[in-house]
Design brief:
Blueprint: H1 3-12, H2 14-27, H3 29-32, H4 35-43, E1 61-62, E2 68-72, H5 77-82, H6 88-100, E3 109-112, H7 126-143, E4 147-151, H8 153-160, H9 166-169, E5 174-176, E6 181-186, H10 189-194, H11 199-213
Parallel strand pairs: 2-3, 2-4, 4-6
Antiparallel strand pairs: 1-3, 5-6
Helix pairs in contact: 2-7
Bound molecules: iron/sulfur cluster.
Length: 218
Amino acid sequence: MNHTRAQSLAVMGVEVWLRRDVAERVNSTNNALDPAEFAAEVAGCTRCGLHKERTQTVFGVGDLDANLLIIGEAPGAEEDRVGEPFVGRAGKLLNSMLRAIGLSREQVYIANMLKCRPPGNRDPSVEEVAQCAAFLDRQIDMIKPSLILAVGRIAAQNILQQTTPIGKMRGQRYTYGEKQTPLIVTYHPAYLLRSPREKRKAWADLMLAKQLLGDSML
Ligand code: SF4
């Protein structure tokens, strides 16, 4: 955690929560790794204020044995309604991006950093991200991906705990967590719909993903 983020969390009293989350994770490892029980636990979560306005939690979708884990920011209106991440136009573009490297939506796992929709699609707060972080960590433990693709600025900056602009993060190779899972960054498909000229860069990011996945894609 960088200094600025640690200070922000401390000011908001979030650091205590983070430590408690880590303890909970350690104490409930067996339950955490049962997908159905885990999803039910998330569905009942009231840790942060986002639970008040959600239609439902959006846990994630795809192959639990996937080599590629895609992580976005948080559910939007359509995801909140349907209960699945990356649906609608952005979801269709993500599916096309995956097809371009020979993968179907069913062959990867897709999740969001936050499981509940921020009202009005606002950016999630530091506290909300912190409260939900343990769930994401547990999903990563459950799936054990060969590669994580962080999609969009909010997801990339929060997962890597950096403030670097996304344009400078893409093309770099990072690792995540104690297991040092390889992680790369690309633009969010919703951004690509607004800025189609950037699709060329997203294509390059996907080619990097394909290269890093290597034999695990066969
Ligand atoms: Fe719980 Fe995460 Fe939803 Fe907040 S966003 S209520 S921490 S599941």
